[in-house]
Amino acid sequence: MSCATATKYDVFLSFRGLDTRSTFISFLYKELVRMNIRTFKDDEELENGQRISPELKRAIEESRFAVVVFSKNYAASPWCLNELVKIMDFENKDSITVMPIFYGVEPGHVRWQTGVVAEQFKKHESREDHEKVFSWRQALAAFAQLSGDCSGDDDSKLVDKIAHEISKKMTIFATISNGRNLVGIDRHMKALNRKLDLNSNKDVRMVGIWTRGGDGRSALAKYVYQDMCQQFESHCFLGNVKTISQGRHSAHLHHEFLQNIQRENPNKQSLKNQKVLLVADDVDKVKQLEALAGDFSCFGPGSVVIITTQDKHLLGSYGIKDVYEVDILTFQKVCRLLAFKKRDISAAFRWALCRATNFATECFCCQSSTFAYWKVTDSV
After folding, report:
1. How far apart are CA 96 and CA 332, in angstroms?
2. Fewest 10 Å CB contacts: which of 2, 60, 287, 367?
3. What are the transmembrane regions (predicted)?
């Protein structure tokens, strides 16, 4: 999620008032407010299809999450569909996380725009501009591709699940970002989840995260750990493996693992039948993996070991075939977005020029580039 725009709200609720305003939305809003989650709920839904107001657009843009409750009459409302287009625009820019809730509808009908959704769009096509209807279809198709929840017999359980999931994600953002938000985190998580296969109960699964730089890889590793550690009986995040291993016997890593594992009095025997998550960040030598192998080789079925490194060859040497390659530029953007957040375009421009200058100097011994740098920045 980009931090280019400050968040005024934690959650933006998108819903069809006719279906859910006085029932599900009322309960969800009350629970979110009770948990001190700042929530925007529009009580002025317009049924004539007019454009959403600048204030409503701003509320979407200034929210961390958009909970879209897609009920049976949601797609019948031009107002709701216009709102969804705007939400998905921001989702595409990674400035908001969308959480779909399929309330009393089949997700397949939404995804393929069949059933009642098809009937509703037939009416739109007879009344509305072709381009507008096409934009609604595109937004709906993108929305339906996102992972979401379905309603059941007990709304209170779904309300609790949504509220606690949002609360957990907010805690993760606060824990790992230090004022920075991860750019494109949802795309990274989707790609990683495919490799991690958390629903598997097979033997220990090993996955590598590789990139040339350090900040992006480590930030992603921490996010992954915080996001999924509660799904495991025991879990451990070993940070800065390269640093804590320097000048020490390999047994030191085993000691660090025992010190950091989140459970009481850990030992190999007790971990043997447990589902364990181990994230080892910044590994730079095969012997470090060998030192930890005695620990993770005894983990129970469904366990996951994630190794992050700058050395892709190291992963191959150890036989780790599932490797996720992180786009370093995405994470360099994260580190510098604070300049834009403060509207300090000049500082961000100087930083970019400085990076280009350093690159030219190191690669081409271009001493005159320093003069060019100061010449340009003087005019910024």
Report:
1. 19
2. 367
3. none
> Cα(104)–Cα(100) distance, rounded to whole angstroms?
13
Q: Which amino acid is at 164?
A: H
> Are 283 and 256 spatial neighbours (Cβ–Cβ below 8 Å)?
no
Cβ count near 56 (within 10 Å): 19
Helix H or strand E segment including 254: helix 251-260
What confidence score (pLDDT) does residue 102 get?
97
Cβ proximity of 206 and 307 under 8 Å: yes
Q: For residues 92 and 138, is the Cβ–Cβ distance under 8 A?
A: no
Q: Could you give the CA distance from residue 368 to residue 198 in angstroms, rounded to a whole number?
A: 54
Scored b (16 or more CB within 10 A) or e, 321-343 reads eebbebeeebbbbbeebebbbee
83 classed as catalytic: yes
Decide: helix, strand or coil at residue 243: helix
pLDDT along the chain (380 residues), means of 10: 58 95 95 92 56 81 94 95 95 89 94 95 95 96 92 93 88 53 71 82 88 68 82 86 82 82 60 86 90 81 91 91 73 41 43 50 44 40
How far, in Å, CA of 25 to CA of 14, rounded? 9
Do 166 and 31 contact (CB within 8 A), yes or no? no
The upper half-sphere exposure of residue 182, i.e. CA atoms within 13 Å in the direction of its Cβ, equals 28
Q: What is the pLDDT of residue 214?
A: 54
Amino acid (one-letter) located at 361: T
Task: Name, in order, each residue with C-beta under 8 angstroms of 252's C-beta and a sequence gap of 6 or more.
Answer: 244, 245, 291
Alpha-carbon gap, residue 54 to 323, rounded angstroms: 43
Instruction: Please pick, among 62, 83, 91, 256, the residue that the annotation labels catalytic.
Output: 83
HSE-up of 351 (CA within 13 Å, CB side)? 13
Tell me how far apart the alpha carbons of residues 129 and 310 are, in angstroms, rounded to a whole number.
52
Non-local (6+) Cβ contacts of 299 within 8 A are 204, 271, 272, 274, 275, 276, 278, 305
Per the DSSP assignment, residues forming a β-bridge with 66 are 12, 98
